[in-house]
Structure formats: C-alpha cells, structure tokens
Amino acid sequence: MAAATTSSIDQLLPKATKAPSDVLAKAAETSTDSSFKLLYFGLHGRGEMSRTLLAYGGVRYEEIPLQWPVMKADTRFGCLPVLYETTSSGTVLQLSESLAIERYLARKFNLLGSNAWEEHLVNEYTNSTETLSGNFMKICFVSDEVRQKEAEIFYRDHLTRWVQVHERLLAEEGQKQNGHYVGDKITLADIRTTVMMDRVLFLVPKGQEETVNKILNKETAPGLWKVRETVHAHPLIAAWKKSQRHQEIDAGTKGFFKF
C-alpha cells in the first residue's frame, strides 16, 4: 500500500530540475511559455494571491490534488503553497513560501512598477496590507467566543487604521481617483489590497456585519474602493472570480473556518 501511494504521489508532483542556480535563473528568465501547477488546500488562505496572480497572468496552470501528509516531505520547507513552473525549455522550478511566490509572479507579470522607486512603493503598500492580513488571521483560527473579541480588536485597531492610512496615502500620491496605488496600471499592491478587502468583506463573524460595512465602503474608503473595482474589472480576474473553481474555494473557506 505504501509503495503504491508513493508511486501515485511521484506521478502527481512535478520533479524539480536539479541544476546550478545560474542555470535555473536563465531558464526562468528566458521562458516564453511556462505552465504552472499549484499545490495548496481547497481554500483561499495563503494560496489566494498565487491563484489571483496566475489568473491575471493568463498562463496555463492547474491545481495538484492535495495529499499533504505524503507530499509534505517532497517540499522545500514542509509548508504550502508550493508552485511548480515548467519553463519552455522543460526546466521544472519548485517555488516555495507564499510571499516569495507572489513577488516572483509579480516580477514575471510586470506588476512591480516601471522603475526601482515604483517597485519600492509597490512593496511598501503590499507589505502594509500583508501586515493587516496577519492580524486578520487571528480572527480565523479561533473559537466563536474568542473570535468575537479578536474581531472587535481587529476592526477597531487594525482595519480602521489601515483604511485611514491608505486613504491618506492614495490622496497624497494623487492616485485616489485612478484606481491604482502606483502609476496608471495594475500592480501587486492593487491586487494585494483587493484580495484583502475581498476576504474582510467575505469572512465576517456573526453580528459584525454592520461594523465592517461602516469601516469599509465606497463612501468611507473611496480610494481603496476604486482600487478594488479596477482590479475586479480586469477581464482575466473577473473571469476567475466568476469561475466554478472560485465558488468551490469560497465554500471551502467558509466551511473550514466555520464562518
């Protein structure tokens, strides 16, 4: 039984190419038609950004059926998500750690701005929202009783401040009306904020709906709302959000976290 399981896992997981770093780097940089396979749970979580970025990139990708206890030993850090890229030369790259994967895809899909300064700004906004995401997770992995207390702290101390700071910065940068944090095109910062807003508005503890809607709406957060609308309007992201797979992941997420 164990041998059969191992054999089936070997067939599911791409075998990462073993080569010097410069060889792998060249394969990644020169690939013109990569395909991807994502290994993650059937929920949003740390895989949501990777899925959204892959959708935005319009690339060929599929999800590997997850058999985590057996697959874990074959991953670099023993955690998910893991992304496999098969380059046009046939080289297979294994990418680990969610934030590193997101930056890698953002660079590949030209989502880091047009120069070093814009890239810095994109990273600033993205990191700020990532901090908010970490605080939001404190609501998710707790019992209903604890969740209410953590939710009050999150909405009062974290979400409110994030909205205020980002609205101010969007206005200062002159970006409040164009739907982008940096420049005039979608960047990683826009997508990260949109995904964060989607989660905050989707996973709401019972009795907290009014609180959330007061903090985060088109009137109280016009700049952020415009960013979200702009990202949602992108044809490839819009198609992804309407897809059956996205609906399945929505259901899986609510079921797993018991919202």
* Helix/strand structural class: alpha+beta
Per the principal axes of the C-alpha atoms, what is the gross shape?
A: globular
| Individual helix count | 12
Name of the level-1 CATH class of the largest domain: Mainly Alpha
Domain unit count? 2
The CATH architecture of the largest domain can be named as: Up-down Bundle
- SSE arrangement, N to C: HHEHEHEEHHHHHHHH
Task: Kindly report the CATH topology of the largest domain.
Answer: Glutathione S-transferase Yfyf (Class Pi), Chain A, domain 2
Q: State the strand order across the main sheet.
A: 2-1-3-4
Please report which band the strand proportion falls in: under 5%, 5-15%, 15-25%, 25-35%, 35-45% or over 45%.
Answer: 5-15%
Share of helical residues: 55-70%
Mean pLDDT: 94
Largest sheet: 4 strands, mixed
Distance between the termini: 37 Å
Q: Unreliable runs, pLDDT <50, ≥5 residues?
A: none
Let me know the number of strands: 4
Radius of gyration: 19 Å
